[in-house]
Design a protein that fits this description.
Length: 290
Amino acid sequence: MRKNIFSILIVILIIIIGFLVFYIKKPESSSGENKSEYGTKKFSVTLDEGVEDTDNQSDENNQVTQEPETESPESKIAAMCDTVRAMDFTANEPHMDITPEENQKYLEAYLKVLKNEISIYRQSGEEIYYRDLWKAGDKFEDLLEDKWHDRFYYDDLDGDGKPELAIKQGCLYIFNYELEDETCSIIYDQETCYFGKIIGAGQIWYHDGLHADIIRDRLITFDEENEEVALNLEEGINKKHPYYMVGIGEKEWVDVGKENWDEITAPFFEMIENHGLQEMTLEEVFGEIL
């Protein structure tokens, strides 16, 4: 009897052990499969990110190490010289396209400006009178007393076919009168110590020879709305430190050297030497209407 009971217990124990072994091994197998699956995926993601990071790092390194191309001094000199050589240094001849009747109206209007009977507008829009102009604004009686002095320009000074009046007195002021709306405005002003001459319609020579060891010259172009420095020249005449700087508009100044300077500036200096509008007296401008 006891042997039968013992045999039954052994069988039951074997069944329990087998059951436990079966259920314990199954999760381990499943866990191993999942581990392998996730491990593969994890490796795959890590590999992809590693490739992407490497590419990005390469791009960043390229951006850091890539330096912008710089223009050599020789190239800058050549480019500036070519630009100046291509400039047209022809003096613009003024051409008034008005009738004698219209010319008479212009003269009468400009005379009223000098008499402070007509207001004028600065480029800023401020309304003033001739008497308010800095370094100018003489009383008309004083102008009459000195009516033989060459200080005026009367011609198509800005290239629009209509007459402008300029007075060179402390400052150079150029007045533009519009017959249509009967208004007068200042379209250019410059201290006379830096004024060379009006070369042609819309062309002014700026000259500064007042500073030690430096001579500055400019070609200024203008009309009733715009003003531009077309050519900028600065020559250092100190024998120990000579230089020859050239600038065009807003471009960087370039020291072109004496040989290039002599070549490319020759047409400009020839123009200002051989051309210029006639300066006139008060009497010559207004004649019988004074």
